[in-house]
UniProtKB/TrEMBL annotation:
GO terms for molecular function: phosphate transmembrane transporter activity. The keyword Transport applies. InterPro entries: Phos_transporter. This is Phosphate transporter. It comes from Christiangramia sediminis.
Length: 747
């Protein structure tokens, strides 16, 4: 029987390594986003600074936080075999939950995950013990759970969300009021003081929070706690002088140093204190196994009172953990997906919105707009002018052609993000208030975005929806962590070794599946074969540039159309579903081009108006093509998915003729635009009436069949819909060709 616990311990070690990987992939956003979003320093430098912070914090960390051993449950109430079940359930749940959020690109809290997993597993194990006892009832459940500490942790975590958002918004608003968006001018005068304040706050945060738990912390913790005013005062003078000298000597902005040191500080604190979220449970399991093996008692009789004692972490394990975390930071693609979510939500300029608006986000934006209008109404006119002048954005932020390549926000906001997050975490630590570093850093970033008016009328509903989705995900994290860990605890209790083996195999399978899914999405995102935005200013240039887009759309339309009719004739639901996805992707790319129209027109000079008219017209025809394909694919999939009768043989034959005709036509168009032989378009336009008349004849034939022999209303309706929509598709294609033909001849 002893072997099973040794195998469980080995499994927990492997799970700890996997948890380090998925945990860093999630929490990397805490310290990377401000530097990446502002592009104050190169990406390679950011990674080196963050890596140093992570490794130093991990190596000098105590590696243990009491939450993993006695912060949530009373260890003395459980026996060794029960505690090992709890730990196994927690680790499996933690990996799957964090990997799920990483795959979605959503930041969540590793602290909240581990807390609620431990709580859920401990509660279920306690319920099992209570139900098996003749003397205990549900009222005795409180003797198993450390309710006071658990409540303190949970309330502290969620209270930090509101505080972080509010303080972040207030500090950013005041900073922007002072510096405005043209901060380069004012930073020369006030930069030394601003840098001194930020570096003092970040420096205090590094010593108080980042190095808490290191062997050196005891030597200065009394000074930090009892001589706060002196420490802060001396630091402020030193860092202000340092900032002034740096700016004078190197002629560079002190904000670069603030962002670099702030990134280092948050990375240091993350690894030094959040390391427990990844290795705390396996470490506790190891010490439990060690104590039980030395006791000589049965696993079901050895009380885990030993977990109440302080246990130092082994330096070699901390060294290995730091190395794994650094490697993950450099090579994890999922870490960058999670980072993109927060940067996208806080982006100052225009960019692709990841989230769709919902009823709640619309209500929040509408209410906030009315409140802002009311406040503006009561403010004096002079005050409003002063505020509006400070918040005037440079022209390039508003109309930049390459918004995605610009910094998501400026260095002032990046510095405030890092400083405020560091200060809030330091204050909470000094009062021994637990919080989630992910929640604090994310909500500070969202608060500063709001204050910076990054959430304008153009993007507010999308950004607010994104924030609400992330916060909703946090509550889902808590609920699912509690429920999943509890369920797995019960399954392992019933199934013992076989149940653990099955769950581990299932976990591996899900991790592999999520990895493949994320990899495929990354490949699709990196695919450069999609539609490209036009950069030309003249009709001739747009004709030549957009030829690749037309060829792309025509080629994909040809495949989608053929696949739909093939899937319909063979009742192949999988092929029809794939066609629907292909149409959705095509529509999204065309919509992205339409969203670019504003920037395209703003970039034109007065002599290029005809070029913009041509560009808008062809985008309209491309939209018509995509909409017709969407209707055809949707109706066909719905028919097969609802298990209606297949189309009759003569209907399929007619559709095949249309498919062949259209395929030949689209192949010719594809060749013309690929080779840019626009003089051949005239022949395509000349065949318009012949093709449309052919479709009309098939409609008339179906009318005759319906009157005499057709017996299926669903088939008849589908067939007419397909023919009519194909006719609209042909009209859109021919209109597009006519526009190109006439514009080409005028050039």
């Amino acid at each position: 029987m002893e072997n099973i616990y040794l195998l469980m311990l080995v499994a927990l070690v492997v799970l700890a390594i996997a948890d380090l990987v998925v945990g860093v992939s999630n929490d990397a956003v805490n310290f990377l986003n401000s530097a990446i979003g502002s592009k104050a320093i190169s990406f390679k430098t950011i990674m080196i600074v963050a890596s140093l912070g992570i490794f130093i914090g991990a190596v000098f960390s105590s590696g243990m936080m009491e939450v993993a051993r006695k912060g949530i449950f009373m260890p003395g109430q459980f026996y060794f075999d029960e505690i090992m079940i709890i730990f196994m359930a927690v680790m499996i749940t933690d990996i799957l939950l964090l990997d799920f959020f990483n795959t979605l690109g959503m930041p969540t809290s590793t602290t909240v995950s581990i807390v609620f997993e431990l709580l859920g597993a401990a509660v279920v194990m306690a319920l099992i013990k209570v139900s098996a006892s003749d003397s205990e009832t549900l009222a005795n459940l409180s003797s198993y759970i450390n309710t006071e500490k658990a409540t303190e942790i949970i309330s502290g975590i969620f209270l930090s969300v509101i505080i972080a958002f509010t303080i972040g918004a207030l500090v950013q608003w005041l900073s922007r009021l002072v510096f405005s968006f043209e901060y380069e001018k004012k930073i020369k005068n006030f930069g030394a003081l601003f840098g001194g304040v930020c570096l003092t706050a970040i420096g205090y945060f590094i010593f108080f929070k980042g190095l808490k738990g290191t062997p050196y912390y005891d030597s200065f913790k009394d000074v930090l706690s009892s001589q706060v005013v002196w420490v802060v005062g001396v630091s402020l003078v030193f860092w202000t002088l340092f900032s002034w000298l740096f700016m004078k000597i190197f002629k560079r902005s002190i904000l670069i140093i603030v962002i670099a040191i702030g990134t280092f500080g948050l990375a240091l604190a993350f690894s030094g204190n959040d390391l427990v979220n990844f290795i705390g449970v396996p470490m506790a399991a190891y010490h439990s196994y060690e104590a039980w093996a030395a006791s000589g008692q049965a696993a079901s009789a050895f009380s885990m009172e030993v977990l109440k004692d302080e246990v130092p972490a082994e330096p070699i394990l901390l060294f290995i953990s730091g190395g794994i975390m650094v490697l993950t930071l450099w090579f994890s693609k999922k870490a960058r997906s999670v980072a993109e979510t927060e940067i996208g939500l806080s982006r100052q300029g225009h960019g692709t919105e990841k989230f769709d608006p919902n009823m709640l986000s619309r209500a929040v934006v509408a209410g906030s707009t009315k409140l802002a209008d009311g406040l503006r109404y009561i403010l004096p006119m002079g005050t409003k002018r002063r505020i509006n002048k400070s918040f005037e954005k440079p022209e390039e932020i508003l109309v930049g052609d390459k918004a995605e390549e610009q910094p998501a926000f400026d260095m002032i906001r990046a510095a405030i993000n890092l400083t405020v997050a560091g200060v809030l975490i330091s204050i909470a630590t000094s009062y021994k208030l637990p919080l989630s570093t992910t929640y604090v850093t994310f909500m500070v970033a969202m608060g500063t975005s709001l204050a910076d008016k990054a959430w304008g009328r153009e993007s507010a509903v999308y950004r607010v929806a994104g924030v609400l989705n992330v916060i909703g995900g946090w509550f889902f994290t808590a609920f699912s962590a509690f429920a999943a860990a509890g369920i797995l605890t019960y399954i392992i209790f019933l199934g013992k070794g076989p149940a653990i083996a099955i769950l581990l195999l299932l976990a591996i399978g899900l991790l592999v599946r999520n990895y493949i899914s994320h990899k495929n999405k990354a490949i699709a995102k990196a695919d450069k074969s999609g539609l490209k935005k036009s950069e030309s200013k003249t009709v001739q240039g747009i004709i030549s540039e957009s030829a690749d887009n037309i060829s792309n759309v025509v080629s994909r339309s040809n495949k989608i159309f053929s696949d739909v009719f093939t899937g319909l004739s063979k009742q192949d639901k999988k092929k029809l579903k794939k066609s629907k996805k292909g149409v959705a992707k095509l529509e999204a790319e065309i919509e992205d081009l339409r969203d670019h129209i504003f920037f395209f027109i703003k970039s034109l000079d007065e002599t290029s108006v005809r070029g913009s008219s041509f560009y808008i017209t062809i985008l309209g025809y491309l939209t018509d093509i995509a909409q017709s394909l969407e209707y055809i694919s949707k109706k066909s999939f719905k028919h097969v998915n609802n298990n209606h009768k297949p189309l009759r043989y003569n209907q399929i034959t007619d559709l095949k003729e249309i498919d062949d005709t259209l395929s030949d036509l689209l192949t010719q168009i594809d060749r013309i635009f690929t080779e840019k032989k626009f003089e051949d378009i005239s022949a395509i336009v000349a065949s318009r009436d012949e093709i449309l008349n052919s479709i009309s004849e098939k409609i008339e034939k179906q009318v005759s069949r319906t009157r005499t022999e057709e017996s299926s209303p669903k088939n008849t309706t589908l067939y007419f819909n397909l023919l009519l929509e194909t006719k609209d598709l042909m009209n859109a294609i021919m209109n597009l060709m006519q526009e190109y033909n006439s514009s080409y001849k005028k050039v």
